[in-house]
């Protein structure tokens, strides 16, 4: 019995030692751009879809507005059209943005339908944004974004990550020499493995599977001894707006109950995350929270020890970071 006790104590002592002083480190963020953000003592400002509560999401106007504010990173989503163009659009379906029950891949780029007059916002119950104030009311090409904003970090999720789409995105990244300013990823781990096989030099964000795996290893003390396959942990904070939105779109009582459980589970993870984020930072892994849109949510994220905040309200986040001396471009 004593052997088991001393073995248990020895295991946790060894785990804690390598947790505080990790020997497994990543070198993916070796480029000058990433080193600058890693070394500065500020919070990375990330504009979700360009800031979709201030401008129509994933449009050149939204990206330009966020860029002019001084955002560190533009977040966007990519799909491929029938004529093999890579466009910036969150939903592969055109229903929410255009009112058309079809998918992007069914249209040539020049034939894509126009946006609706009012577009429903994700993560916000009963909120809409008018398209009438947008001077660029169309889906931009990813290539145009790369050309227009050559010196900003870009976080991209590939919505339809089959080999042809991933290769086309990679070709554009290489064409404009953006390997050092791109973080990419997809929804599932197998899809991230495809991204890695096509270009292992481009950092990848965690999938949901990857996040759950890291937390499981963390809570069992095994994390310091395992490699982490991806490079940037981007976790949902599960804000009040997000929770109410999820309840609104739930199709059954059981789905609503699942959302209640998940909401409480995310709160619990937030309470135990600060040491984990410290360890990940030591291993060269960025941690971002999404999608946060007010001071209460920003403060909750900072208490957890995150390195970046993704927001639909880039102006509000900038003002908050300046007020708290956490803005990196002062």
From TrEMBL:
CDD domains, alphabetized: GDPD_GDE4
All residue ranges annotated as the GP-PDE domain in the record: 43-321
Gene Ontology CC terms: membrane
Superkingdom classification of source: Eukaryota
Protein's cellular compartments: Membrane
UniProt keyword annotation of Acetylation present: no
Pfam hit, one: GDPD
PROSITE patterns per the UniProt record, alphabetical: GP_PDE (PS51704)
GO biological process per UniProt: glycerophospholipid catabolic process
Recorded family membership: Belongs to the glycerophosphoryl diester phosphodiesterase family.
Name of protein: GP-PDE domain-containing protein
């Amino acid at each position: 019995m004593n052997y088991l006790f001393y073995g248990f104590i020895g295991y946790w002592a060894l785990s804690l030692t390598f947790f505080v002083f990790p020997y497994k480190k990543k070198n993916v963020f070796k480029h000058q751009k990433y080193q600058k953000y890693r070394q500065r003592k500020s919070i990375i400002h990330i504009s979700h879809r360009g800031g979709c509560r201030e401008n129509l999401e994933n449009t050149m106007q939204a990206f330009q507005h966020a860029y002019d504010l001084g955002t560190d990173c533009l977040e966007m989503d990519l799909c491929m059209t029938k004529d093999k163009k890579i466009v910036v659009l969150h939903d592969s379906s055109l229903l929410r943005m255009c009112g058309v029950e079809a998918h992007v891949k069914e249209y040539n780029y020049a034939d894509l339908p126009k946006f609706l007059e009012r577009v429903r916002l994700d993560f916000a119950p009963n909120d809409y944004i008018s398209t009438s104030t947008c001077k660029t009311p169309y889906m931009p090409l990813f290539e145009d974004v790369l050309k227009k904003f050559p010196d900003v970090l870009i976080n991209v999720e590939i919505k339809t990550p089959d080999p042809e789409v991933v290769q086309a995105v990679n070709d554009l990244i290489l064409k404009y020499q953006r390997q050092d300013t791109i973080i990419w990823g997809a929804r599932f781990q197998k899809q991230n493995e495809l991204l890695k096989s096509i270009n292992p030099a481009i950092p990848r964000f965690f999938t949901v599977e990857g996040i759950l795996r890291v937390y499981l290893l963390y809570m069992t003390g095994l994390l310091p001894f395992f490699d982490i396959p991806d490079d940037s942990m981007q976790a949902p904070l599960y804000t009040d707006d997000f929770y109410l939105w999820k309840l609104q779109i739930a199709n059954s009582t059981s789905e609503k109950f699942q959302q209640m459980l998940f909401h409480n589970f995310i709160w619990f993870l937030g309470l135990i995350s600060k040491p984990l984020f410290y360890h990940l930072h030591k291993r060269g892994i960025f941690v971002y929270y999404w999608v946060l849109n007010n001071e209460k949510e920003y403060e909750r994220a900072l208490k957890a020890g995150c390195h970046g905040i993704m927001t639909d309200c880039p102006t509000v986040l900038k003002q908050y970071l300046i007020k708290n001396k956490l803005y990196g471009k002062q």
